[in-house]
Amino acid sequence: MNSQLSDYEKAKAFDIQSIDQGFLDDPFPTYQILREHDPVHINPDGTYFLTRYDDVVKAFKSPNMSSDKTQDFKPRFGDGPLYVHHTTSLVFNDDPYHSIVRKLMSEAFTPKKMNELDSVIDGIVDKLLDNVEAKGEFDVVQDYGLALPTEIIADMLGIPEEHRNKMHHYSTLILGALDPIVSPEKIDEGHKAVEEFGGLLEDLIAKRRLTPYGAEMGEVLVSLIFGEVDGRKLTPVELVQNCIFLLNAGHETTASLVSNGIGTLLDFPDQLELLRNEPGLIKTATEEFLRFQSPLQIGNRKVIEDTEFGPEGEKILIPGGSFLHTCLGAANRDPEIFNNPEKVDISRRPNPQIAFGIGKHICMGNTLGRMEGQKAIGKFVDRFPNLKLNGEKKFHGRARFRGLSFLPVSV
Ligand code: HEM
User: Fold this and answer.
1) Dmax over Cα atoms in the chain, in whole Å?
2) Ligand 1 and 371: CB distance under 6 A
3) Would the CB of 90 count as within 6 Å of ligand 1?
4) Mean pLDDT for the chain?
5) pLDDT above 70 (res 87)
6) pLDDT value for 112
7) How much distance in Å is there from the Cα of 13 to the middle of ligand 1?
8) Which neighbouring-strand residues pair with 139?
């Protein structure tokens, strides 16, 4: 962005379709000037960009907003596997259909299931810690952060060992097809990934139907196959596509929480010291990492009927049919809600961060994500008193998601 411009002019000139490397590396100064000078910003393409906490919460909670993508995805994906996948995924549907499928899927996230997963997470984290300790020098992202949630979702879906190394790749290809600009080759790869991973899941589901009692600890497939609400089960397509969606929704976001959390502690050594001295702070610390570097930075909604957004006295009417970018990353640093929002305070209370969204679509995996984050970061800090940054960390550079692609450390 041109540095000669005033903050007001910079805010007005912001264009979500043409962001630069500076924004990708550190979007927070831009969020700040947008929140102060143009909180209901209109982009050159006619879409809106919301940065105030109250506006983002309103967009997520209002029944006047749609998440349905059946029309938007048609020109991009045609009728192919990517279209079936993304339009069947829970997150891209509205009520009443959304609530029905959400109830059926909630069978996978009951307190009993979370309890089972608790010890599964402990086992995986301890094994990963042994591995990285033996290396001495390693990349937190690849060797630790990504490995835990991938293993957890593989356990939840009962994916056999030999297929697990492909899961991250599938997810990258399927989610990559949602990027603003995508080549036809990438779209093709995305279609193939849905087909391949979908085929694998169909086989696993068929086997589990025949042997419902053979599941390992933490597996949730049986609940998703046989779960019933008001006499309705998940259809075969809903079942397969939402299992794929669980991988996409739950692994990179959680990996970012773990890596961003450890990266943030290295950036703020006083907070690392505090957590070492008071390990009981891991719960508030995890909330603070979610607030400070929210893994999903920018969500979206479509306005159904004209709705007002903006601070009192400066309301702007957004017309029905408009597309909204809901900037969770900016909302989570809104000084009207958080004292000293640019400061990391691992004991911050209250901390009404909305990194998991809010309202009807609030993240179904929020308890699981929190458990994974708390255990992975807490045990890591406890195990490595000599933790040091061992090179330059890098963010992966995608505007909607905030996550490290490289965090070299020595222990
Ligand atoms: C730190 C980790 C995570 C973060 C930051 C996160 C963030 C989010 C956000 C912001 C939404 C709402 C999207 C919207 O309203 O449009 C969402 C939805 C969802 N997430 Fe997560 N998520 C995380 C982990 C997980 C995990 C571990 C799972 C499951 C394995 C999961 C499953 C889901 C599902 C199923 C939805 C759709 C809910 C619905 O539409 O009703 N997430 N997540």
Assistant:
1) 68
2) no
3) yes
4) 96
5) yes
6) 94
7) 31
8) 408
- Give the span between the Cα atoms of 163 and 256, in whole angstroms: 23
User: Is residue 114, in this structure, part of any structural domain at all?
Assistant: yes
The boundaries of the domain holding residue 113 are: 7-410
Ligand 1 site, residue 253, Cβ cutoff 6 A: yes
| pTM score of the predicted model | 0.97
- Omega before 350 cis (within 30°)? yes
User: Pocket of ligand 1, candidates 363, 367, 404: which has the most ligand atoms within 8 Å of its Cβ, to mutate?
Assistant: 363
Helical segments of 278-315, H only: 282-292
Position of tokens 């979702």? 153
Q: Distance between CA atoms of 236 and 244, rounded to whole angstroms?
A: 13
Look at residue 2 in the predicted model and tell me its pLDDT.
Answer: 60
- Mean local confidence (pLDDT), 151-170: 95
Separation of CA 349 from chain center: 23
Q: Report the separation in Å between the CA atom of 101 and the middle of ligand 1, taken as the mean of its atom positions.
A: 15
CATH code where residue 284 lies:
1.10.630.10
Q: Tell me, using a 6 A CB cutoff, whether residue 82 lines ligand 1.
A: no
Q: Is residue 170 part of a domain?
A: yes
Q: Is the CB of 378 under 6 A from ligand 1?
A: no
Q: Give pLDDT tens digits for 203-244.
A: 999 999 999 988 888 899 999 999 999 999 999 999 999 999
Ligand 1 neighbour 272 (Cβ under 6 A): no
Is ligand 1 within 6 A of the CB of residue 361?
yes
The number of folded domains in the chain is 1
Q: Is residue 1 part of a domain?
A: no
